Amino acid sequence: MKDIQVGLIGFGNIGAGVVKLLRENAAVIRAKVGAGIIMKRIADLDITSDRGVVVDAGVLTTSVDDIFNDPDISIVIELVGGYEPAKSFVLKAIEKGKHIVTANKALLALHGSDIYAAAVRKGVEVQFEAAVGGGIPVLTAIKGNLAANHFSSVFGIMNGTCNYILTRMTQEGADFADVLRAAQELGYAEPDPTFDVEGVDTAHKLAILASLCFGTRIDFKKIHTEGISNISGLDVKYAAQFGYRIKLLAIGKHVDGKIEARVHPTMIPLDSPLADINGVFNAIRLTGDFVGPVMFSGRGAGQNPTASAIVGDLIGLSRSMKAGAGRRMSPLGFLDDTIVTIPVKPMADIISKYMLRFSVLDKPGVLGGIAGALGTYGISIESMVQTSHEVDDSAPVPIVIMTHKAREGSIQKALSEIDQLDIICEKTSFIRIEDNLE
Question: Which residue, 69, 144, 293, 401, has most beta carbons within 10 Å?
């Protein structure tokens, strides 16, 4: 079989990693595919900067049309990132009958339906293993070896920046702001870390994961999303005291005909495997009806792991092309006409346990006032930690309460009332708890 010709749009750090991998591991790729995968064209606005990899003369171009209009290029890799012009590039490549490989989770989370529909019309594939978990092969597993299962849940620690920050806060007792600055200095966090620390990046990935697991299309705008910027050292300390660790967790559940899709700081038990995922590492835990719980972990970002996932998709497509299979698999793993609409459960209807941290004046009747307001909304207390003053009786003190399972809407209403009491010194902190990660 003749070699597979590939075009790359976006020659940044990840693109350079793809070129490097194709060059350095060309022999093993050929041995596994039966053909070479050749980078014929690379399009980028900047074709003069040194990327640290050798590119043959004539490969670089500033015009994406050199890729779209080349009949020998059968696969286009999109690594521009963001929404536009990435979406236009992908749709044009599909219209030209070219398969797509992308790492662009934001694009797929918001515009995946349009892209998948276009691929169906043209009979091409869209592969995106690198969009979730970097080098962790979880999407391929869901669509392949685990495809026989009904999935009931998916949990994920999927942002290395947040996990690095929370790990250091846990291990060192450091404050969020200090660790964030350190993460930026080390290159683990962007100069503008908003997408990471406010949970948006994780929510993009959850939209993709939940769609594949549950055979539906998750509206990204319906994913409840919170970040870690409000997590304090006190929250980390008290979570540990109750036997938990705080992680930014993506949660997807298919229960009673509805989908739970949410991203927020979550307390998970210390004996859970997810609690031991530290630093910049990612992990995704799935539960299938026959396979049971399985967990994938590894480096969720970076040049080499992401390039590994992208080239893995190239190899899969090349094998299909060699076998004459054409469009072998739909993007979500389900036949296109079997994708169903499943409603997303409103956040107010979520049932969870909670850790509530109140900052109060240390005087009689405080606990009674809090417990009374909680009781009004049917929220019962499982355990509590109360700190008394040793020196200054006028300074606020924390009261930390662990609740039994309660409805989110009830928690919100109770805290809204409690925060109006004159004994409360600052807005109450609350963190949801997941005891059962299956």
Answer: 401
The residue count of the chain comes to 438
**Paired tokens of 226:** 């919170």
Alpha-carbon span 157 to 202, nearest angstrom:
8
- Spatial contact of 323 and 33, defined as CB atoms under 8 Å apart: no
- Catalogue all structural domains in the chain, each as residue range(s) with its CATH number: 4-135+303-335 (3.40.50.720), 140-298 (3.30.360.10), 348-433 (3.30.70.260)
Biggest CA pair distance of the chain: 83
List beta partners, residue 287: 153, 293
Is 222 catalytic? The answer is no
Q: What is the 3-state secondary structure (H, E, C) of 7-21?
A: EEECCCHHHHHHHHH
- Say if residue 390's pLDDT is above 80: no
* Rounded Cα–Cα distance for residues 132 and 293 (Å): 19
Q: Rounded to whole angstroms, what are the CA distances from 338 to 119, 150, 204, 208, 335? A: 16, 14, 23, 17, 5
Nearest to 369 by CA among 410, 329, 405, 415: 415
Model confidence at 1: pLDDT above 90: no
Contact 418, 358 (CB under 8 A): yes
Residues 342-358 have a mean pLDDT of 95
Q: Pick from 199, 220, 94: which is nearest to 156 by CA?
A: 199
Separation of alpha carbons 173 and 302, rounded Å: 27
Cβ-contact 431, 390 below 8 angstroms:
no
Choosing from 87, 143, 205, 253, the catalytic residue is: 205
| Orientation angle between helical segments 86-95 and 105-122, nearest 10 degrees | 20
- What are the structure tokens assigned to 108, written together? 């797929």
Rounded to an integer, the average pLDDT of 150-167 is 95
Query: Model-level pTM greater than 0.85?
Result: yes
Contact 27, 61 (CB under 8 A): no
Residues with Cβ within 8 Å of 142's Cβ and at least 6 positions away in sequence, in order, are 151, 209, 212, 213, 286, 333
Helix (H) or strand (E) holding 357: strand 351-360
State the pLDDT confidence band at 394, using cuts at 50, 70 and 90: low
Strands 73-78 and 60-61: unpaired
- If pLDDT is split at 50, 70 and 90, which confidence band does 368 have? confident
Report the chain's mean pLDDT, rounded to a whole number.
92
